[in-house]
Amino acid sequence: MKQKKGFSKALTENVGFWFIVPWLIGFLCFKVYPFASSLYYSFTNYDLFTGISKHGLMNYQTIFTDEDIIRAFQVTFKYAIFDVPLKLAFALFIAYILNFKLKGVNFFRTAYYIPSILGGSIAIAILWRAVFNTDGLINTVITAFGGEKINWMASANGALTVIVLLRVWQFGSAMVIFLAALKGVSEDLYEAASIDGAGKWTQFFKITVPLITPVIFYNLITQLCQAFQEFNGPFLVTKGGPNGATTLISILIYNNAFLRHKMGMASAQAWVLFVIVCVLTAVAFVSQKKWVYYSDEDGR
Amino acid sequence: MTREQRRKISTVIRYVLLVAVGFIMVYPLIWMVGATFKTNSEIFTSAWFWPKNPVFDGYNDAFKSYGGKINLLTSMLNTYKIVVPKVVFTIISATITAYGFARFDFKGKGIMFSLMMATLFLPQVVLNAPQYIMFNKWGWTNSYLPLVIPSLFAADTYFVFMLIQFLRGVPKELEEAAKIDGCNSLKTLWYVIVPMLKPSLVSCALFQFMWTSNDFMGPLIYISDMDKYTNSIYLRMSMDGDVGFQWNRILAMSLISIIPSLVVFFCAQDSFIDGIAAGGVKG
């Protein structure tokens, strides 16, 4: 009887814990265990069919010496360097215009958001291939304006442009987040500034941007994480080509793990990618002291 | 120039910008609709979306199978065999977890909360290979289990985070009243919390619906039998396998496959926008 009382007491005192037990099981089983085991696999030559026969640093040695792998990392960086700033700049600029009280804002907001909803689907990848075909929509428009046809998929920069544009086109969700932040900037500040004679551009760079730096920071981190993992665009639209010019590291990881069944190598590559993303995020967090402005009343 | 004139001019400039950018954003989709009624030669010569001589063989052929035990409709059905349970499981498990984190104190809560937040930033790329090895050992590969079961355990932490954010904004008075009236915590969850969270649960369901319908990597890794192909894998197969490449057929199939997502989006666009703005969301 006494024991039962103790048990029910423990049960009621830790009610909250029982609610998170399902998550905890999933966390250990589907996140922690795979995460830890992939670190272990990265130091082996694990093959899905023949298992492990060797331990050591050989995967990492290959990663830092093999030209194709180094190139894949370079391409991934190049992709992110173009993709992230372009997407953020677009999203912020359009959000800024939408934030003026114009009629029909909701209509435009919807139009800009649709690509973000559909952008990840295969249907859009297929559309992108049709649009950027040598005789596709884009080239038809270019020639109509008297320009030269661009062979998008055959040149390294062309192919990279195609997949960068695919993601920049999906700036809608970043835009909606910016828009919510812009709504929080007090009207009084703009009024005071315009009385002092500050033009719209000055207001944008001296008032708006500093006040929403926390949200810029948030969008920067999430977009960075996603850009480094981008898979669908290069895999489906450009197929990594031409000559590996759009073979991002995510494609090498996929090929190693699921076509060649070299799980050890795939894990090592994934871990190098993970460390890079961590370092970049850490750099962003450290640098935020210099440029992210947290106001006193709603410091997050 | 007077102040009034300047104001008018800048409004016009803003509208011109919005319309121009909006046009560029949406035109590829409009063009896609038109292209499904065009012949190959017209698709690649005309930038105008309206077909000159509409042809319907794209739609006729869209539903034809490429051989094998799969066609467009069965592949879409397969997709929703994953989407529906995943949405339901995610909503249930994420609500329970968020309730536990947002409304109770217990030993180790701080650490567990930080761990949960950390998984938000854990790239899926790192987990793909080891998860595959694990599910392969369990004999789950070539089934929908690896794609659905983790959602029973609130694996998409993002939604837990979103619901916790919403719960923070909900006053606790009602729950306290329910407690005084003798409701236990389970009853409180069901009769008090869930009704209040309804709008945010709708947002979560919508996002999970979209993300899972669009998911390509998951089915690509786990599904190998053709008759289990989801829509995204089926489309990819047709894109790579279509001999002679009949573009109106492939574009018609693509268009048909995004119609459910478009319908859901237009019926519930406010929930989407509110959901992103409130959760401060990825995507």
Gist?
The complex is a heterodimer of chains A (300) and B (283). Chain A has 300 residues and is mainly α.
Jot down its keywords.
heterodimer; A: 300 residues; mainly alpha; MetI-like fold; 15 helices; globular; B: 283 residues; 2 domains; 0% strand; flat
List the helices and strands and how they pair.
The complex is a heterodimer of chains A (300) and B (283).
Chain A: H1 2-13, H2 15-41, H3 58-65, H4 67-99, H5 105-118, H6 122-131, H7 137-144, H8 156-168, H9 172-183, H10 187-195, H11 200-211, H12 213-229, H13 232-238, H14 249-259, H15 263-291
Chain B: H1 3-35, H2 40-43, H3 57-62, H4 72-103, H5 109-120, H6 124-137, H7 145-148, H8 157-168, H9 173-180, H10 185-214, H11 217-222, H12 231-241, H13 247-267, H14 269-279
Description:
The complex is a heterodimer of chains A (300) and B (283). Chain A contains 15 helices and no strands. Chain A is mostly helical and 300 residues long. Chain A has a single domain, classed as Orthogonal Bundle (MetI-like fold). In chain A, helix 2 packs across helix 15, helix 5 runs antiparallel to helix 9 and helix 12 packs antiparallel against helix 15. Chain B has 283 residues and is mostly helical. Chain B has 14 helices and no strands. In chain B, helix 4 runs antiparallel to helix 10 and helix 8 crosses helix 10. At the A-B interface, helix 2, helix 4, helix 5, helix 6 and helix 7 of A face helix 1, helix 4, helix 5, helix 6 and helix 10 of B.
